[in-house]
Each structure stands twice: as structure tokens, then as C-alpha cells.
Design brief:
This protein has seven helices and 15 strands. By secondary structure, the chain is of the alpha+beta class. It has a seven-stranded antiparallel beta sheet, with helices on one face. Strands 1, 2, 3, 4, 5 and 6 form a six-stranded mixed beta sheet that branches. Helix 3 runs parallel beside helix 6. The radius of gyration is 25 Å and the shape is elongated.
Length: 282
């Protein structure tokens, strides 16, 4: 085995699971505080361009649900309810919470106005020719124990449909969950370590075993980048030397991986006792 008990414990700490409470996302529909001149300008612009843009206040709760779903798809984050959050707020240093602002929920179509669409809703005439829904949200993530802001970012997502505003918004909501999950999976990456050599052939490392399995949702076909880590002037430098792909998940903290890139480089690094970091490929 290439790893010690201390190494494995350090690996567990690097992949610590954070609980996160979903807080309030304030939403004031864009345009409600605009003066009459701005509103008139927007209406005139829409008429000239042949498009109608509508703020969709009714979808605010759906946007909040989409944000929560996005966080729920982050491997190292566990979404918890309000009661659990309050109980653990003052004792769990790995407890996070998120809040923010729904900047905009809008749909733009080159069909009739909202009033006209409602009138035509039950008619045989299709009230749309094309609809594009756009959602913009600012998401803050804070440490609940210290109150320190850990991250703040604005996410934008869109969706389109040729016949339905609701379908366009549904697609935008799905895309919003996806971009939030993608960003925070990269923000809180899953790391692994090579804990045992596998097959070696012609001075090439063909397979290795890593300390990642079902406990962190490893799956067959999952890919990892392998980095050689060096310290330069007191700073950590990472040099990518190869890539792995999971061939078989063997347990909670064990998977067999095929070396798909850098077979010679990984073998040399293991021979030399170099420090290697294995990170989920995004």
C-alpha cells in the first residue's frame, strides 16, 4: 500500500461534507421601481423591435427550488432543512448557508403582449412564435459558524421554446440548477489519492487503486486528473501528469482505475515517491 492511515485520514478531511441551509432569496421584479420615463422607453423599444419582455413574478418560488436543487447535486454539500440548520448553527464549523437575490425572471417573445396572450390562451390560435426565458440570480455562501462570506456569484441561465412560455422557463430552471451544481462541484472538489499500484506493463502504469468509492458517489467511467505537487517558494505548484478512469468501484473508499493518459509519468512519479493529487475531472 502506498498510503498510511494518516494519509487516508487527511484525504477524508479534504473531502469533508458540508451541510448547507437554503436561506432567503429576495426578489423585486425588475421595473417595479423604475420611473415612468424608463417604463415608457422600454415599451417603445419593445414595439420597435417587435418583441415583448415580461417579468415573471409567479416563478420566484420555482427559482428558489431550482437553486436548492443545484446545491443538492453538489457531491460535497448536503442540503438541510431550516429546523436542522438552527439546531446546528452554533456548533458545526462545517455548516454553510446560502442566500441572495433573484435579479430577474423574464420571458421575451416576438408574439403578442402578456394581456393578449391571456386572451388567446384557450383559443385555437398559437399565441407564441418564439419565447426565450432568462433567469439571473446572485448567490451568496457563508459559513454559519463564523459568518464569513465564502463565495458570492451571479448565475445566469436561459431556456427557449417555440410554443410555450412555461416550457421555456422550465428549461431555464433546469439549466440554472446545472450551472450552480457545476460551479460548486468545482468550488468544493472531490479529491482522491493513489493508494496502491495495479498492473504495470512495459514500464507503464496501466491501472491504480484510489481511495474513493461509493461514499462520495464514485462511478464506473468517472474521470480524474492526476497532478504532481511541488512546493516552490513556499507555494504549492501542481503539474498535470496524467488521467484516470474508474473501471470498477470496489467499496466505500476504493476504486480500480485505468490510466488513460500519462502511463509513464505516473509510474515514474510513484517510483520516486512524488506527492500526487487526484482530482475529479470537470
Amino acid at each position: 500500500m502506498l498510503s498510511t492511515v494518516h494519509d487516508i485520514q487527511a484525504q477524508v478531511e479534504r473531502n469533508a461534507i458540508y451541510k448547507i441551509g437554503i436561506g432567503h432569496f429576495n426578489y423585486t421584479p425588475k421595473g417595479e421601481n423604475d420611473n415612468a420615463g424608463k417604463v415608457l422607453k422600454n415599451i417603445t423599444s419593445s414595439i420597435i423591435k417587435g418583441k415583448n419582455t415580461t417579468q415573471l413574478s409567479d416563478y420566484a418560488d420555482d427559482v428558489r427550488a431550482s437553486i436548492a436543487k443545484g446545491f443538492g447535486n453538489v457531491v460535497r454539500l448536503q442540503v438541510i432543512d431550516g429546523k436542522t440548520f438552527q439546531n446546528e448553527k452554533l456548533r458545526d464549523k462545517n455548516l454553510l448557508y446560502t442566500d441572495g437575490t433573484i435579479v430577474s425572471i423574464s420571458a421575451t417573445s416576438n408574439g403578442p403582449s402578456l394581456k393578449e396572450r391571456k386572451r388567446l390562451k384557450n383559443s385555437a390560435f398559437t399565441p407564441y412564435t418564439n419565447v426565450e426565458a432568462t433567469i439571473s440570480v446572485t448567490v451568496n455562501v457563508k459559513n454559519a459558524y463564523t459568518g464569513v462570506m465564502e463565495d458570492s456569484r451571479t448565475f445566469n441561465a436561459s431556456g427557449s421554446d417555440t410554443t410555450s412560455e412555461d416550457k421555456a422557463v422550465t428549461e431555464a430552471l433546469s439549466n440554472l440548477s446545472g450551472v450552480i451544481a457545476g460551479y460548486f462541484n468545482a468550488r468544493y472538489p472531490v479529491n482522491a489519492a493513489i493508494i496502491e499500484r495495479g498492473e504495470i506493463k512495459k514500464e507503464k502504469q496501466k491501472t491504480v487503486y484510489i481511495d474513493l468509492g461509493t461514499s462520495l458517489s464514485a462511478y464506473k467511467g468517472q474521470q480524474f486528473d492526476v497532478y504532481s505537487v511541488k512546493e516552490i517558494a513556499g507555494k504549492e505548484a501542481r503539474i498535470e501528469i496524467g488521467r484516470l478512469k474508474v473501471e470498477e468501484v470496489l467499496g466505500e473508499e476504493l476504486s480500480l482505475c485505468k490510466v488513460t493518459k500519462g502511463e509513464k509519468e505516473i509510474k515514474t512519479a510513484l517510483d520516486n515517491g512524488s506527492t500526487l493529487v487526484v482530482t475529479v475531472r470537470r
